[in-house]
Amino acid sequence: MDDHVKSRREEYADSTRRALIDCGRRLFVEQGYAQTSAEEIVRAARLTRGALYHHFEGKQGLFEAIFEDVEQGLADQFSEAASGAMEDGAEPWEQVIRALDLFLDECTHEVYLRIVLQEGPIALGWTRWRELDGLYMSGLLRTAIARLVDSGLAAPLSVEMTARAVYGLLTELAWGIAEADDQAAARRDAGLVARQMISSLRTS
Known about the structure:
The structure is a single chain. By secondary structure, the protein is mainly alpha-helical. The protein has helices at residues 2-31, 38-45, 49-56, 59-87, 92-106, 110-124, 126-150, 159-179, 183-199. Helix 7 packs across helix 8.
């Protein structure tokens, strides 16, 4: 009986947390972080302020959870794309290009654009933004670059420094897309620049 009650409590907690994340994400995307109040979020989720503070300790904690949720979603897309590319028999550099295109395309999608690129630095501050964004992106980059270097397909440079350089490049291109009046054109230009610069690492 106790296990059953505990299970129901856990299910309720999970559904409450999910409702806050879903409503918060919608409002942050539509209105921005500063323009969205905690009261609006809990009202939209049909919950109390106590629920928000219990699960996230307030609006900023909720935003951080949403930020990580969006970043994890992109990381999952990378994993799926990598698996699909391997099944297709794509060679390693083609896999890199597919991942690059996936990332730059995501920068034009509303949720990633608003939560990660536009509102993230405002809500989290630069230091925390970089810490969280790097947590997801840097590991993926280091893994991809190490694979290319180990296979002799990329220049035998420091994997750590190369990953930092590529991360910096992609971050600036992402913000360039986010700040552009014509995001479709910026996306095309960013793709050309990224391919040209990353291809300089290629040995064959």
